[in-house]
Design goal:
12 strands; 2 domains; six-stranded parallel beta sheet; alpha/beta; Rossmann fold; four-stranded parallel beta sheet; 13 helices; globular
């Protein structure tokens, strides 16, 4: 292809310096979705989960745009508690940062003045920003950004087009689960595991972060663990096992949906709650044990609705 000038794109990689394998699920989707639309660009990668070095800042300074891939990157308090390790020095990089399915860090109030200044200094005005839910969209709109579309997380863009028609409805014989040790609730987690023991022949658990292992063993000593890497989880989902997913790790649940496994995601924070509401994902509130049991017992068709038009608009701007 004859191109007059190759763009330089820096990809803000949320899986680097992360202990959460779920971030690999996100970044795999980000890379796959971007591949066709930035195939003629020079692409750098820098980490989002640690403060940028002079080298990373220099790479961004020479880039046309920076694409921030998924995760809970945005926070109302960027200088205090945020997954994205920004500093005041980064404001000098200019308005070249573009969001791709990014979400807000928990339920928070309005951004503090420092955060508002930083976001307005960094976020592009000439490109559409893609966010993962309506909550995040409203947060950015309140800061004056009218170039925001709600597309869901890029992991949802990876769902098969026929997901609603081809995903099993009946309960499987076995189940794979996950727990989130960052947001523990021993009673709720124990109740969920006990319910799964009653309803399924065998209960497996995928270890998504290192600390999950001890917590799972503590609550369910005999549980069968799946190795803490994405390949092992994918192998279980692709196996001949008659298998459901029921757990409180959002992206493990989305991965199960990508593999057409019957899935129930437990809402433990704003991520599953907001995306469940916006896109009709199969979610259940953490304190609704009866609701969870009813979903396990009774076949219920999927009706996931994705904003394909908004997704195409965001991707189309890079062509």
């Amino acid at each position: 292809m004859n191109v007059s000038r190759f763009r330089t794109i820096t990809l803000l990689d949320t899986s680097v310096s992360s202990t959460n394998v779920g971030d690999e699920i996100i970044m795999e989707a980000v890379r796959h979705q971007l591949a066709p639309v930035i195939s003629n660009d020079y692409v750098n990668r820098v980490a989002s989960h640690e403060t940028m070095s002079a080298k990373s800042r220099g790479m961004i300074a020479k880039s046309d745009y920076v694409i921030a891939g998924g995760s809970n990157l945005l926070s109302s308090h960027a200088g205090l508690r945020s997954v994205w390790k920004l500093s005041p020095l980064d404001a000098s990089l200019g308005r070249k940062f573009v969001m791709m399915g990014v979400g807000w860090y928990h339920d928070q109030g309005a951004p503090d003045p420092y955060t508002a200044w930083l976001f307005r200094s960094l976020f592009a005005r000439d490109r559409l920003h893609s966010v993962r839910d309506g909550y995040t969209k409203r947060k950015l709109e309140a800061l004056g950004f009218d170039n925001v579309v709600n597309t869901g997380c890029p992991t949802l863009w990876e769902l098969p087009a026929d997901i609603n028609q081809t995903t099993p409805q009946k309960r499987a014989r076995n189940v794979v689960t996950t727990l989130n040790t960052y947001m523990k609730d021993r009673r709720a987690d124990s109740d969920m595991l006990a319910l799964l023991q009653r309803k399924y022949d065998r209960v497996y658990a995928w270890v998504q972060t290192y600390s999950d292992q001890a917590y799972l063993r503590e609550l369910f000593p005999s549980i069968e663990l799946i190795a803490p890497n994405l390949a092992a989880f994918d192998a279980a989902l692709a196996s001949d096992l008659d298998l459901d997913y029921v757990g409180n790790r959002l992206h493990a649940g989305i991965r199960a949906l990508q593999k057409r496994r019957r899935t129930i995601i437990i809402e433990i924070d704003n991520r599953a709650r907001e995306m469940g509401r916006d896109f009709n994902l199969p979610t259940v509130a953490r304190d609704d044990l009866k609701g969870l049991e009813a979903r396990i017992e009774h076949p219920e068709p999927l009706n996931i609705i994705l904003p394909r038009g908004e997704i195409d608009r965001w991707l189309g701007q890079w062509s």
